[in-house]
Amino acid sequence: MINNIKTYFEDLFQNKEEQTQQKHTVELASTALMIEISLADDHIHEEERHVINNLLKDRFNLNESELDELVELAEKEVDHAVSLYEFTRLLNETLSMPDKIGIIENLWHVAYADSNLDKYEEYYIRKVADLLYISHADFIQSKLKAAE
Questions:
Q1: Domains of the chain and any CATH numbers
Q2: CA dist., res. 110 & res. 31, Å (int)
Q3: Are 100 and 132 in contact (CB under 8 A)?
Q4: φ, ψ of residue 73 in degrees (nearest 5)
Q5: C-alpha torsion angle, residues 78, 107, 94, 5 (rounded to 10)
C-alpha cells in the first residue's frame, strides 16, 4: 500500500516536471524561430524586437525577467544552431496543428513588424512551415491574417 502511494506521488511529480520541461522547450524553440526570422535581413529592427516581446508575453504569460532570460537564451541558441530543424523538431513533437499554425502566424507578425517583408523572411517562414507540415493553404491564410 505504501509503495503504491509512493509510486503515485513519484509519477505525479515526474509528470509535472516533464510538463514544465516541455513548456520551456516550446517557449525556447518558438522564440528562437522568431529571432531567426527577425535576423533574416541581417539585423533585428526595434519594431521586430517589440513584436517578439509582445507575442511572447501574450502567448506564454511571461514577466519581464522571464522574457529577458528567454530571449537571451534563444539568441544564444540561434547563434549555435546548424539548422531550423533543431527547433521545428521540438515543436512537431509537442504541439497540435492549430498551435503550429499559430507559430507560423506569429512569424508573419515578426516579418511584418518593420513594414517591410523581406524575401528572406518569407523564405524562412515557408521553410519553417514545411518543417512543421503546415499546408500551403494554412501558410497563406496565416500570412493574410498577420498582414491585416
A1: 2-147 (1.10.3680.10)
A2: 11
A3: yes
A4: -65, -40
A5: 90
Q: Which residue type sits at 116? A: N
pTM of the model: 0.81
Cα separation, 145 vs 91, in Å, equals 22
Core vs surface per residue 46-71: b (16+ CB within 10 A) or e: eebbebbbebbeebbebeeeebeebb
The HSE-up count of residue 76 (CA atoms within 13 Å, CB side) is 6
Residues 2-29 have pLDDT tens digits of 555 555 545 545 544 454 455 568 899 9
Residue 58 is inside which H or E element, if any?
helix 46-60
Of 100, 6, 111, the residue nearest 51 (C-alpha)? 111
Choose among 80, 86, 68, 77: nearest CA to 127: 86
Distance of alpha carbon 147 from alpha carbon 107, whole angstroms: 11
- Each residue's pLDDT tens digit, 95-142: 999 999 999 999 999 999 988 888 999 999 999 999 999 999 999 999
